[in-house]
Design a protein that fits this description.
18% strand; 238 residues; flat; single chain; five-stranded mixed β-sheet; alpha+beta
Length: 238
């Protein structure tokens, strides 16, 4: 009986040790490299955000207004990364994540007018440390559901203590109305247990068109107001 107890205790210790070794191995092989990769993406977000803060400061001085309404950043969650990797059939490794996913690091720039979007995007892409990987213009060519935005996938260097590393960042440019539509569309479309409704789909597209009209008219009004302010009062009298 004593021998059996010793055997059971030894077996329990061996199983616990094996579990510990397995967990430790997983941590070393995946968790730590994953956390390191995510820290790199965080650094890349900071670099992009700084660039837009500098552009915002410069342009606000030049044009007496700030073309950037807000800057938002996000790092894709582990759950979202896992789901996308599985859905696309990629191996679930740190190397595969870095190679195959372009939208882990995200920066969203909310602008006043559509022209601000293109001005800011062009200013960014002129910088010699920015490498454009992909550009999708959903403003000139909206998605079927009405979604509008300008998407850039870029590579930007981050400088570590002993090396330089190029990291991918997705940048989305939207106007206030584009962002409002996208936010509300997400709340409506992804409501739990929502049955298929052609009416809702059509209304969402129609709202996107109205949003586009508002953008164009508001920008036109701003241009007219600017022209009136800059016009010589003497010419007005004549």
């Amino acid at each position: 009986m004593e021998l059996e107890n010793i055997y059971n205790q030894f077996s329990k210790h061996l199983v616990e040790q094996l579990k510990y070794d397995k967990v430790s191995d997983i941590v070393k092989k995946f968790v730590q490299p994953y956390k390191k990769l995510m820290s790199y993406y965080t650094c890349a977000i900071m670099e992009v955000e700084t660039k837009f803060n500098v552009l915002s400061e410069e342009l606000s001085m030049q044009y007496d207004r700030n073309p950037i309404e807000s800057i938002r950043t996000r790092l894709k969650s582990p759950e979202s990364i896992r789901e996308k990797m599985i859905r696309k059939g990629f191996p679930l490794t740190v190397e595969s994540i870095e190679e195959n996913l372009n939208d882990i690091a995200g920066v969203r720039i909310i602008c006043s007018f559509p022209s601000d979007i293109y001005a800011l995007a062009n200013s960014l892409l002129k910088q010699d440390d920015i490498h454009l990987i992909e550009k999708k213009d959903y403003i000139k060519h909206p998605k079927a559901n009405g979604y509008r935005s300008l998407h850039l996938i870029i590579e930007i260097p981050i400088y570590l203590h002993d090396t330089k590393k190029m990291m991918k960042v997705e940048i989305q440019f939207r106007t206030i109305s584009m962002d409002c539509w996208a936010s509300l569309e997400h709340k409506i479309r992804y409501k739990k247990d929502l049955p298929q409704s052609d009416f809702i789909e059509e209304e969402l597209v129609e709202c996107a068109k109205i949003s586009s009209i508002i953008d164009a008219r508001m920008e036109n009004l701003y241009t007219m107001a600017t022209d009136l302010v800059q016009r010589d009062p003497k010419e007005e009298k004549n």
